[in-house]
User: Which sequence fits this backbone?
């Protein structure tokens, strides 16, 4: 499967070689306000990550995400590797994915030889747990449209899947500014929750992710990832960031301002809002592909979707110079 992702500026430069200046990358859902972590001691780069620092971050993550016990937390170098490992960890004859959503889930199971069925509405999804040996996948909030399922309804679904002896994977990569995690239900044997650190804290290059699941599944993942799954500097930065509640509160305020500004601006240019989160916004426009080409030819990279050519996803921006650049390029469309 050839899956397109945000942030692929190498592809942008290849497709639009006429762009010689800097690119404005609005194709991702990464927080533009990066966490201002403290300076790090050089020894963190010189030595192997310590077991005590890993255990410390596991407990901090357990408290932050609401599962309380670190036995329900596995550290990983980003969530992508966790997605790739799911077919190895969970034995399934068929996987049901609430769709449209993040395509890597479909790809990972398909490559493992497991039948994947796309389910387009939640009502149908609720009945599928009655089968044997199946896995469900839901991104909540969803990427790319921001769809969010009511907590009571989701809790009921999780309990049904667990009672049937099946597993439900919840990808909560964009939950930090959207509400409460379902991890409080752990150690429910049928629930697996994936959380992204880099998107929320604007530090995607650190490659830090978390799996929240039953102790048995967590232990299997930890064995698969082996020693030192996260580098020493990343362990320290993540531990500091997850405990900085004030930064999160202040950053959420700033994101809401930029989100409202982006919505109003694009709607004034005949875009219709489909949905989104505080880290990305999805819009409909009947000329979306032409607009995508025009933006890209001027060095502005946004996310388009092959399965819906009328959709464009924009990440948030905050620098005034970037706003002026986006405004000028959209105004130049004839």
Assistant:
């Amino acid at each position: 499967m050839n899956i397109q992702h945000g942030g692929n500026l190498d592809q942008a430069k290849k497709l639009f070689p006429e762009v010689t200046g800097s690119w404005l990358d609005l194709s991702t859902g990464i927080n533009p306000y990066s966490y201002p972590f403290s300076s790090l001691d050089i020894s963190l780069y010189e030595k192997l990550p310590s077991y005590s620092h890993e255990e410390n971050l596991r407990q901090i993550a357990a408290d932050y995400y609401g599962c309380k016990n670190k036995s329900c937390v596995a550290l990983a170098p980003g969530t992508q590797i966790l997605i790739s490992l799911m077919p190895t960890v969970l034995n399934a004859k068929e996987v049901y994915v609430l769709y449209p959503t993040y395509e890597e889930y479909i790809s990972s199971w398909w490559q493992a030889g497991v039948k994947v069925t796309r389910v387009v509405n939640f009502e149908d999804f609720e009945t599928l747990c009655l089968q044997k040996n199946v896995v469900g996948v839901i991104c909540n909030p969803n990427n790319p449209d921001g769809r969010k399922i009511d907590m009571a309804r989701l809790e009921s679904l999780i309990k049904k899947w667990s009672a049937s002896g099946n597993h439900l994977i919840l990808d909560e990569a964009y939950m930090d500014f959207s509400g409460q995690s379902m991890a409080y239900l752990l150690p429910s044997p049928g629930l697996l929750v994936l959380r992204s650190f880099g998107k929320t804290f604007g530090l995607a290059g650190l490659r830090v992710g978390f799996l929240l699941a039953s102790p048995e599944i967590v232990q299997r993942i930890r064995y698969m990832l082996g020693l030192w799954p996260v580098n020493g500097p990343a362990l320290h930065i993540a531990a500091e960031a997850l405990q900085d509640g004030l930064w999160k509160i202040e950053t959420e305020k700033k994101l809401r301002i930029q989100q409202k500004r982006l919505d109003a601006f694009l709607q004034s240019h005949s875009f219709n809002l489909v949905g989104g989160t505080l880290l990305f916004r999805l819009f409909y426009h009947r000329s979306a592909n032409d607009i995508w080409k025009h933006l890209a030819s001027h060095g502005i990279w946004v996310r388009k979707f092959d399965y819906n050519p009328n959709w464009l996803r924009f990440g948030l921006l905050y620098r005034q110079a970037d706003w002026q650049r986006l405004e000028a390029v959209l105004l130049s469309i004839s």
